[in-house]
Amino acid sequence: MTPDRRRLAELTGDLSAAGGVRLVTLGDGLERGIRTLEFRTGSGLAFDVLVDRCMDIGHAEHAGRAFGWRSPTGFRHPGLHENADEDGLSWLRSFSGLVVTAGLDHTLFGGEVPADGYRYPPRQIVRHGLHGRVGNIPARLTGYGERWEADRCVLWAEGEVRQAAVFAENLRLIRRIEADLGGDEIRLIDTVTNAGFEPAPHMFLYHINLGWPLLDEGARFEADIRETLWQTDSVAEQKADHLTFPGPAPGFVEQVYEHALVPGEDGMHRVAVVNDRLGMKVSVEWPAAEFPYFFEWLNLRSGNYAVGLEPSTHHVSGDAAAREDGSMIWLGPLESRVYHTTFRVS
């Protein structure tokens, strides 16, 4: 419990004794040059916002125990990213951290779709890589700091990410991240706007990646699943449990599930990973109306050990299928959509 505003002022001349937000720049290796906001709530919750990586959340821990996944790639500077490399799979060379955003006009596997809506004859098609472009675009940092609301202190950051080209999409993401001083939750509020004047396709997904030590043999996945709509062939081949997780295994092939979740009476979807041995639980909730679909990703390979929780605007079949079946979201000129997601550690 953090003291109230007056008592805290009596105890220390600097709020950073209790927590806060600090802007730093990473200085070595593949991460060199990435602006990072370090959040510390004072409860034991600490996490990094990677300003130059779509303001995604990289490292995350509670009481010194990490729960955000760290892959072998590190937090690679976006200037090193080549979107169309490796047949669109180059996204996997930048894939690490608690939250990696997919979109804004495409999610899931790559491919080609018609570009006739942009009315530029030389651009006949749009080529997409895995999970789109936005996760490797730097943000314009518009503000960060600490704000008192009576005796509640909110740590916050906000920035703008632009995904745009001449004669193509002009999409903007305004991302706001909040956490309370003394609190154990992260609030993510995203507003996606078509800043152009032609209808723009919009798909959006959060790759929420949980790793060791939260993820370990015996850790559990909790969700109110009505039905599993789809799963990869590797599920039947490997038969790894997706509710109580095994430990890492060499050569494990990713298992992916699309689950239809049952929303609570308040219209919220809720999922969690629980480690009873640590007495630690990380839960995620969001309005079902904003992200109707959900994927569970099991990457239990040795050296890449992770579980992904993935709220999504669309089914697993991707861009071309969404256009064909009419489920694609088309944002009109200056039209916006807002997304609210909360992470809790207990």
TrEMBL record:
Pfam families: DUF4432 (PF14486). Transmembrane segments: none annotated. It comes from the Bacteria. GO terms for molecular function: carbohydrate binding; catalytic activity. One of its GO terms (biological process) is carbohydrate metabolic process. InterPro entries: DUF4432 (IPR027839), Gal_mutarotase_sf_dom (IPR011013), GH-type_carb-bd (IPR014718). Gene3D superfamilies: 2.70.98.10. Signal peptide: none annotated. This is Uncharacterized protein DUF4432. It comes from Nonomuraea polychroma.
